[in-house]
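Input structure tokens:
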């Protein structure tokens, strides 16, 4: 069977420029993300500073633009002072978030050195769980103040003469969650975040600040949390955060494949709450969103931190991703692009080993998981402006979220090169989709690349250290261009990218 999805792509209808930090990632002191991930002294692929160069190469290829650090739940118990200074003088501590033994061998300065190597922008999280205004300001002084003060001079004494000049700071992490060390009510957190923001801006007025939103849209306080926090903090923060993880519920494959539809609704709900508070305050500011944790995570398989034994860098949630997961991740990136007028920052969680696109083991070279590929292709080719595309598609019935569009389409266009990237998903498992696009350009476009992930029956196939290239994007020729019309065959359960370049003039 074949179904048809139609849409028009017109460069006159622009949502926003593609936000550079939409392709962010996340490094937390959790499992083997840091130790055994980006940092592993003594590994054959590590340099003299302990950074794994094979991981760094894959991070650069992935196209990551920003990295959030050091958590996550880890941040709500962490003392930043424990991770700076001579390594042999740093204490070994307990991390209550993940019940791990933390040697503090990798801290702020090592992370900043790594970000320079990886060519990514740092996003720093301060501890507003067990600490507060003073500790946050001391960390900011250490990181950003030039010198001549207690904490800036401490940084200089640690061998870092120039300030790090970290631009974006997250005011805590998931403080709405009862699992969080230092969990707070919305009113408590709103006041603390507001006062912390005011104090930090006195040290460095140039910084951007992210307030904690709901941990997910299933939280009983969702919506009310954002409204209460922003009643106090709206005028002193630049972003509010969103977190969401997706997995298949029961045997509802269709519902899982439509995870981006859930993300769309989540974003729309937070935007509505932000704009409601703006209207109440008679503010003309349009608060931006930082979707600084998102991914596929089979959370139902994780026993929770209370059942973990005290270890250093244990193997935690090292999910192996399938083709189906890659299709979902590609579609989630499409949702973020579609909301680029409000979502300015997004961080896939996490970068290495822990629910990650990159895996690394002690005895082998790092390799790409299936979800690596849609991220890398989107980060590389989604350039310029996101165009407003309103696809018309038949509906797909799901058990958990109701009826959703069977196909999804997003497009970007680079005004300088006039190159267009079209991203499309077929959420149906057994039906081919015929994507019919009306192109309103002043030239006849030429297809310069068409790649597909999915569309073949690979079952639970994934990449591994033994077979790192089993799942890769494959080229496709299932498209036709006829003047201003482009027709693309969308294989069942697939993510596709079609790139266009100017061909003959239509004048």
């Amino acid at each position: 069977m074949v179904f048809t999805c139609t849409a028009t792509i017109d460069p006159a209808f622009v949502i926003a420029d593609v936000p550079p930090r939409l392709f962010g990632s996340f490094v937390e002191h959790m499992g083997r993300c840091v130790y055994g991930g980006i940092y592993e002294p003594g590994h054959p692929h590590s340099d003299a500073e302990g950074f794994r160069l094979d991981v760094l190469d894959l991070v650069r290829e992935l196209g990551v633009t920003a990295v959030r650090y050091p958590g996550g739940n880890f941040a709500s118990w962490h003392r930043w002072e424990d991770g700076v200074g001579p390594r042999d003088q740093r204490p070994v501590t307990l991390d209550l978030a993940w019940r791990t033994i933390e040697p503090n061998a990798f801290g702020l300065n090592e992370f900043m050195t790594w970000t320079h190597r990886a060519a990514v922008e740092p996003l720093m999280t301060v501890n507003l769980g067990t600490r507060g205004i003073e500790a946050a300001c001391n960390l900011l002084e250490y990181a950003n103040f030039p010198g001549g003060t207690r904490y800036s001079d401490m940084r200089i004494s640690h061998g870092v003469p120039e300030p790090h000049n970290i631009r974006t700071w997250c005011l805590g992490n998931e403080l709405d969650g009862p699992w969080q060390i230092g969990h707070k009510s919305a009113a408590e957190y709103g006041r603390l975040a507001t006062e912390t923001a005011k104090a930090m801006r006195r040290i460095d007025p140039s910084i951007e600040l992210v307030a904690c939103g709901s941990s997910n849209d299933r939280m009983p306080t969702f919506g009310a949390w954002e409204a209460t926090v922003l009643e106090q903090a709206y005028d002193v923060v630049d972003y509010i955060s969103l977190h969401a993880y997706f997995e298949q519920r029961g045997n509802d494959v269709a519902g899982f494949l439509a995870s981006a539809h859930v993300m769309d609704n989540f974003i729309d709900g937070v935007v509505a709450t932000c704009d409601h508070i703006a209207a109440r305050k008679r503010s003309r500011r349009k608060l931006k969103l930082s979707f600084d944790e998102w991914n596929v995570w089979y959370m139902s398989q994780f026993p929770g931190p209370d059942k973990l034994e005290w270890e250093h860098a244990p193997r935690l949630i090292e999910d192996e991703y399938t083709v189906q997961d890659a299709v979902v991740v590609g579609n989630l990136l499409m949702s973020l692009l579609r909301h680029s007028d409000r979502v300015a920052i997004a961080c896939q969680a996490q970068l290495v080993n822990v629910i990650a696109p990159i895996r690394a083991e002690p005895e082998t070279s790092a390799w790409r998981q299936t979800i690596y590929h849609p991220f890398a292709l989107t980060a590389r080719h989604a350039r310029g402006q996101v165009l407003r595309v309103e696809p018309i598609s038949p509906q797909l019935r799901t058990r958990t979220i109701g009826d959703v569009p069977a196909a999804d389409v997003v497009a970007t266009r680079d005004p300088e090169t006039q190159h267009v990237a079209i991203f499309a998903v077929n959420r149906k498992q057994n039906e081919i989709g015929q994507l019919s696009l009306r192109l309103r350009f002043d030239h006849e476009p030429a297809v310069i690349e068409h790649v597909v992930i999915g569309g073949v029956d690979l079952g639970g196939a994934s990449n591994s250290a033994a077979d790192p290239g089993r799942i890769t994007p494959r080229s496709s020729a299932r498209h036709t261009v006829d003047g201003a019309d482009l027709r693309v065959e969308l294989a069942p359960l697939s993510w596709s990218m079609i790139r266009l370049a100017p061909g003959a003039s239509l004048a």
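The first strand starts at residue 2 and ends at 9. The mean pLDDT is 96.
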